[in-house]
Each structure stands twice: as structure tokens, then as C-alpha cells.
Design a protein that fits this description.
Number of domains: 1
Number of helices: 4
Order of helices and strands: HHHHEEEEEE
């Protein structure tokens, strides 16, 4: 009976482990090559820094770091694609992710009419800087926060 319980416990843990998303972690030459292409992807502190200013973008950065590294889109040059649907504190958001000439842009919008637009709705990531921006419907932009990483 104890063996059966132990076996079932091990199976349950392995299934739960497979269900979790596994994000790759790199070191050495591979990490240095990734840092040249998109430093924000391997920055361990970036997500925390941004989350202090925007919880929605803190969550999105964590999601997209993993998704970009596992999908292989980093090799594809310039692009724009629909990002993830995600929730923060009960509010649902949609995202857009893109790269143009080495500058990455992440955008968030409410996924439903009940969710308010966050103060920052764009995140620009360059080689060493990040900038949270609020962009109005008329196209005007206001910097909400910026820093180096």
C-alpha cells in the first residue's frame, strides 16, 4: 500500500512538473550571444525593476522572456505579433510584441470593456534602457518611467 501511494505521488508530481512552463536559462557563450541580440531576454533583474513601476508589464516581461526564448523568434529579424492574454489582479489584458531595428516594443490593452487602460501601455526596450510610455488614442506619448538595466 505504501509503495502504491509512493508511486502515485511520484506520478502526480511528474505530471505537475510537465504542466509547468519551463524557461531556458543560459550561461557562458550562449548567454553572451543572446545579450548582444536582446539583452532584456536574459536580464534577471529587469522584470522586478519594471514590476515596481507597472505590475502589468512586470508580468508581461516575465511571460515574453520565456516565450521569445523558447519560440526561436529572436532569430527572425524585425517582426510584430500578437502576444499573450494574461491577467493581473483580476484584470484581463492582451499584448503585442515586436522588434524593429533592434528596439523591442511590448504593448498592453485591456482584454475587455471592464478593465481600465493601465497608466503605462507601451514598453520600449533598447540595448541598455527601458522606457514605460503612456500613448493616447490621438498618438501623443508621455514617458511614465525609464531606467537602465
Amino acid at each position: 500500500m505504501k509503495r502504491l501511494f509512493l508511486l502515485l505521488s511520484i506520478l502526480a508530481l511528474s505530471v505537475a512538473g510537465c504542466a509547468q512552463e519551463h524557461c531556458p536559462h543560459f550561461a557562458g557563450a550562449v548567454k553572451r550571444r543572446l545579450e548582444k541580440q536582446a539583452r532584456w531576454l536574459v536580464s534577471e533583474s529587469l522584470q522586478q525593476e519594471i514590476a515596481e513601476r507597472s505590475v502589468a508589464f512586470g508580468v508581461l516581461v516575465r511571460i515574453e522572456q520565456c516565450r521569445v526564448l523558447t519560440s526561436g523568434i529572436i532569430r527572425d529579424g524585425d517582426f510584430a505579433l500578437e502576444g499573450s492574454y494574461f491577467a493581473v489582479a483580476g484584470d484581463a489584458f492582451r499584448s503585442l510584441v515586436g522588434r524593429y531595428r533592434g528596439v523591442w516594443m511590448l504593448a498592453v490593452v485591456p482584454a475587455d470593456r471592464e478593465t481600465k487602460m493601465p497608466v503605462a501601455n507601451l514598453l520600449e526596450l533598447t540595448e541598455h534602457d527601458w522606457t514605460l510610455i503612456h500613448r493616447d488614442r490621438d498618438g501623443s506619448r508621455e514617458v511614465v518611467a525609464k531606467s537602465k538595466f
